[in-house]
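User: Teach me something about this protein's shape.
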Amino acid sequence: MPRQFSNPLALAVLVFLFERPMHPYEMAATLRERHKEESIKLRYGSLYTVIERLMSGGLIRPRETRRDGNRPERTIYELTPAGAAEMREWMREILRTPVKEFPQFEAGLSLLPALPPEEAAGLLDLRIDLLNQEIEKVNAGLREAKAMKLAPLFTIESEYRAAGLEMERDFVQDLAARIRKDGCGFREEWGKSSAQKAQRAKQTSRRNRRS
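Assistant: First, the predicted structure itself:
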């Protein structure tokens, strides 16, 4: 049976309310304080939409409305028994079952021959530079967490991200070298095809200018 919810932000809401009742602003602040925005996309509009859907699904419910000083009233939400059960099963499913995703880079690789081999290799070089920058950014965050003596349990997703980025960088470095060497076994045909397409594009452009 398909899961009713798939947005990771909805799962974060369920987990936070499993810890304790919260109002939406506190949920967002908790997400930021724990540096989880790299893994879970946060927008306030989306957060309130998620909360409304979780309420409609009977997974969370309002507990009380509170006003602090001159601030607007805030509704504090709590997890229902059904929400706790859904949260546990959702977590089990995520950790247990690999899911086919459709990242843009994989789609681009599947259509690689649309660009000339030299251009493709050059663009991959640029990607390598950006990947190295991102790897250093993630590793800097991990070093900071270690200096703060934060238990590794709370930075597992950053370790996973760093490992994935390093694997991607190594793959892209090898791919760029293979393209330059022999076009992954198709260099001559790939080069000819790209040249012919470029020539046709020029001819079409000339005709359009004349007409």
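Now, about its shape. The mean pLDDT is 92. The first strand starts at residue 60 and ends at 66. If you'd like, I can walk through any region in more detail.
User: That's plenty for now, thanks!
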